[in-house]
Amino acid sequence: MIDRAGILALVPHQGAMCLWDEVLDWDADSIRLRAHNHRDPAHPLRGDDGRLRAVHLCEYGAQAMAVHGGLRARAAGGVAKPGLLVALRAVELLVARIDDLPGALECEARVLIDSDAGWQYAFRVSHAGMLLAEGRAAVLPQSAT
């Protein structure tokens, strides 16, 4: 298991914007993560009404990709290339909000495409065994300037 400090060392998302607390399992093709921060009243994605909408699960999915990319790069002796989220596809949100869920969020993300031109993953976010959201996300490499 990799804790939050280990995740922070892998991704550009820092402080409260780093949404994952721990990596439960990973291999070259997939990753499983857990987070508890959706109940935090100071969550950076909460709306003015204090609610955290299910659409924000797409950011959890995208950050799962970033963590996985960081782990894969580190295993290969390097660091992950910076990327830019460019597309979400086939997203299904099965709840309206997530700030009222009592337990941890879990995400499974799986590599669909890995090339020099970009990456595509499928992600599924659940709570207590219930699927909350799923979809695909695409990231293009960003040149370091």
TrEMBL record:
InterPro entries: ApeP-like_dehydratase (IPR016776), HotDog_dom_sf (IPR029069). It comes from the Bacteria. This is Phosphotransferase.
